[in-house]
Amino acid sequence: MSPHIILRVVSKLLIPMIVIFGFYVQFHGDFGPGGGFQAGVIIAVAVILYALIFGIDEAKKAVPPKVVLWGSAAGVLLYAAVGLATLVMPFAGEAVNFLDYDALHPDQSHHAGQHYGILLVELGVLITVISVMLAIFYAFAGRVPDIPDEEW
Known about the structure:
152 residues, mainly alpha
C-alpha cells in the first residue's frame, strides 16, 4: 500500500475540477473578471499539482515538453494572427486598426466580430500562459541540485 494513497485519490478528484474551473474562467472572461491569463495559470496549476503528486516524469508524459514548446509559440501566433486578420479584412471601405474586432464579422451592427475576436485572442493568451508556466516549472523541477540532500 502506497503511503500517499490519500493524496493520490484526492488529487485525482481535484485536478479535473481545477481544469473545469479554469475553462469556466476562460469562457466567462467576456462577461466578467477572468480571461486567458487567469485561466492559463489555473490550468497550469492543475498540471503542476499532478507533477507534485505523481512525479515530474509522469507529468512530462501527460504534457510533453515538446507540446509546451510548440504551445508557447502557437498562442502568440494565434494572438498576432487575429490582429493581422483585422488589418486585412475589409471594413466597409474604412481604414481599420490592429485588433479592431468589428472587421471579423460582416454585420458590424451587432458587434459579433467583437465576440469572435475576444474569444480568439483570449484563447491565444490561454495557450501561451499554460505553456510558459509549464516550461518554467519543468525547468526548475528538472534541475539537478548542486548539493545532495544528505549534505543539507
